[in-house]
Amino acid sequence: MLVLHNEFLSAKINELGAELVSVTSDDQLEYIWQGNQKFWGRHAPVLFPIVGRLKDDSYQYQNQTYQMSQHGFARDQHFVVESQTDETVTLLLRDNEQTLTMYPFHFELRVSYTLEQHQLMVTFNVINCGSELMYFALGAHPGFNVPLDAAGGDFTNYFVKVAPAQKYERVPLEAPLSNPYNLKTIDLTKPLMLDRDLFKADAQVLMLNNRETTVMLASNLDDRGVAMTVFDAPYLGIWSPYPKEAPFVCLEPWWGIADTVDASGQLEHKFGINTLPAQEQFDTKYSLTFF
To answer: Ramachandran region of residue 210, left (φ > 0), alpha (ψ -120 to 50) or beta?
Structure first.
């Protein structure tokens, strides 16, 4: 387990999946969901090279069929530590014999975590190491304890507040697939109070249209919470399991989305897929501010 620390925060990252597994404040408040198979056994998986589910858990590329499970394989791969200091670490995953059976592209995926006072910056770097156009999606899936402090409050005392405060288009899910042809509207001009029924049809998926957006998860009982700033993601998922009364909520920046209900299965035509020319790179990031 890798540990980062400064005078305000301590963060732990697992080399398995380059997954953030803990962020605690100087007064020992744990922000990250600690995992429980009864609800969800992960903490903050990295999603690559797909986000969400493929139709029939498969896709076709150059007349071959490939199988891949939900959210891709990066979350179950061992990353190597490329560099580390007290406040920052960079982890690296390269294609290997196992990944090539699921995804026929040569790549490097770097995930970096950097503590800056009360903030954790998470950066992603994807390099196409091959000689042909690469297709990929990328995402983050951090879960946060709700309630943050067992001393008071419950799920319904928490809210999500979005800036810019406005009405957002929302992509409905016909679990596990998406239906971007039947967009809905969600009013986020005011804070959205958490309610289990919000997740009855799976995640709330906001269309951010690659615009910088900050999403705050906090309580009306105290001044503790977390704020995520997403700089250029097209989508953001807000999720908690339903109907389980799970004590956490995930805020998920996505550079990609689940297959559509009418997906052809052809990787080149996958909705929301990113393309990366040979030997070029894709860089993005998001930040978490803990208070």
So the answer is: left
**Token digits of residue 11:** 């963060």
Give the C-alpha separation, 267 to 54, whole Å: 10
Both tokens of 112, joined, read 């970096």
User: Model confidence over 71-80: pLDDT tens digits?
Assistant: 999 999 999 9
Average pLDDT over residues 123-140: 98
| Pairing of β 143-145 and β 58-61 | unpaired
pLDDT > 80? residue 152: no
- Give the integer Cα–Cα distance in Å for 88 and 198: 36
Domain 2-290: which topology? Answer: Beta-galactosidase; Chain A, domain 5 (2.70.98)
Closest by alpha carbon to 201, among 250, 258, 243, 260?
243
CA distance 106 to 90: 19
What pTM was estimated for this model as a whole? Answer: 0.97
Domain ranges of the chain: 2-290
Closest CA to 277 of 121, 71, 135, 115: 135
pLDDT at res. 150: 64
